[in-house]
Amino acid sequence: MNKTDFSTLALSKEMLHNLSEIGYKEMTPIQAQSLPFILEGRDVIAQAKTGSGKTAAFGIGVLHKLQVKKFRVQTLILCPTRELADQVAKELRMLARFAHNVKILTLCGGSAFGPQLGSLHHGAHIVVGTPGRILKHLKKETLSLEDMQMLVLDEADRMLDMGFSEEINEVLAFTPKDKQTLLFSATYTDEIMDISAKIQKDAMNIKTISTEIANSITERFYEVQNSQKISTLINILSNFKPENVIVFANTKAEVVEIAQTLQKNKIDALAIHGDLEQYERNDVLVQFANKSCPVLVATDVAARGLDIKELSMVVNYDLPHSQEIYTHRIGRTARAGEEGLAFTLISPYEVDKADEYKNETRLFEDAKELKEMVGFEMKPAYVTLVIEGGKKDKVRAGDILGALTGEAGLEGSFIGKIDIYDKQSYVAVASSKVDEAHEKLKNGKIKGKKFSIWIL
Ligand code: ADP
Ligand code: MG
To answer: Among residues 340, 328, 170, 161, which one has the least CA distance to residue 240?
Structure first.
């Protein structure tokens, strides 16, 4: 018997039969690694790529534990969007075909509240939903989690990205202490590890994409005349096409000039340095982090506190003042097991100092090897909308998401990161949909109130 056979697991005959009926011949890696622990009742935190079969990993665990005769909500599954909740519910229904009468209910924002009350009244075994709407039902006591045994956070990183951490915490307060908690995430950030530490007990950590291997960063150095630096930078961007990049420079004047020149060359760039007002700084950092601007030009101090999960490239426009700063800068790329690129430009007068940087793994190359690409552009995937309402106005991520996907009728997949601050909120919307989203939000309401809304 193969280790990836579902029959190695202590599953019922009916469940095994159904799995083969639906064409699941063997376990995917995430299923093979996590299911033994999930079935044992352990808390599990698991990282795996999209499409790796995470839904069945927790779905089989949920159904295995379910007591169908006990008509109570025994499992709560939190998802970032309605589309994802629908997909999870669909997969669960398919996995549950062998058992009669398993009731699975989805409760998401963007759907009318009233009909959900009716469904809840009829009862359910498993509830799948988005944090905001689940919280609303809990507060109105239209949903009780008294008998809940299992909590699943699916795509936890995306939920945090969308600003749901507060809602998740509040939902947790309604759940029994004694329960099994499964957390799935495509990336492991500090935030994810924090939430796991807070809500899980002795969680088994499963990774199918290894992040423990040392970050692999390719480090390239080019010696160039000062007058050639900008064109070299543009060539680096056009040859290596990073998704996002931080360009470090040593002075404020340089940072501003580089960003302006890049913009003139159809490369969308923002500058950040010590002289910006707090709100300007925030606008810039938010846009870079939520993919509304692919290039950030920064001084070291200004880049502090920037939390980017996946940074594909770092460029040192000048040699950093010390190797320590160098290591710190380039360490921002290649997080989460991705490959990272680090480039450093060396001015003629820095050549001696650059010798200190030489070792076997660093590549010192000729900038002439970079091809000149005509017509290269770098445009962002998203555009940021600012809403003049935040925590103080009790605006939550779920309200914004609800306003966009509900009345405005936008699909959740077009909406990116949502950041809520005290008096303002930012939402990243796919570039092609931003005008439509702006128009609809402007004419509609969020939480029953009108807010000023503009495009950054
Ligand atoms: P993830 O949540 O990890 O992104 P999904 O759970 O949505 O991935 O699964 C991706 C696809 O793989 C789905 O179509 C699902 O039906 C299918 N799938 C899951 N497990 C198996 C399996 N063991 N064998 C074959 N297909 C599977
Ligand atoms: Mg999934």
So the answer is: 340
